[in-house]
Amino acid sequence: MPSLTPRPEPYPPEIAGMLERYPRGPDGRLLSLFRVFAQSARFLGGRGPANLLDAASPLSLRERELVILRVTARARCSYEWGVHVAAFAQRAGLTATQITATAQRDASADCWEPQEILLLRCVDALCDGADLPAELKAPFQDHWSLAQQLEITALCGTYQTIAMVANLAALAPEPGAPVLPDSGSGFEAVRG
Questions:
Q1: With CB atoms counted within 10 Å of each terminal CB, which end of the chain scores lower, N or C?
Q2: How far apart are CA 34 and CA 39, in angstroms?
């Protein structure tokens, strides 16, 4: 029975052409996740995650990475959490304490600014129920523009999908990427 795994080279020309547009790791190697995407030309061609990582995002790099780290930590996806910590956390200005706090159940840790606590709580609500309760909806709408609200929502959905793919494919961490802390997170493991 076939299982999701990174597709080995050589790639068919159509797949190879699509993979050329995907980002590479610091060593120039195509990330394992994108090689899993290569199992489906339709999935690979959508470039969903890559489209959300460009400079045209209406969110700051810090906001975008907080959303991604929170979603992937909640899904217990060490692979994608580690990729983003390694690639973006320093540029986003996240401290070691804040990086660890993205994997903690309590979104109101002392290391966050009030608007970051709001963002993390909104991510939690969107992941839990695909909606925001009234006490979060008004502040969410007041703090972020419509384009930013859509981007936050799209990041939550996209990175839940990415976490599912990476977890199902049992991807090992990329070289140099940290692993998600296993103790004290308070999030239930998705797989047993």
A1: N
A2: 9
Token pair recorded at residue 118: 């709001």
E strand or H helix that includes residue 18: helix 13-19
Extract the tokens encoding 33: 């996740």
Q: How far apart are CA 166 and CA 171, in angstroms?
A: 6
Q: What is residue 92's DSSP assignment?
A: T
- The conformational region for residue 116 under phi > 0 = left, psi -120 to 50 = alpha, else beta, is alpha
pLDDT of residue 85: 97
Contacts of 121 (CB under 8 A, 6+ apart): 107, 108, 136
**111 Cβ partners below 8 Å, 6+ apart?**
95, 97, 98, 101
For every residue of 130-171, DSSP letters joined together read: SS--HHHHHHHHHHS-HHHHHHHHHHHHHHHHHHHHHHHTTP
The pTM (predicted TM-score) of the whole model is: 0.84
- How far is it, in rounded angstroms, from Cα 161 to Cα 155? 10
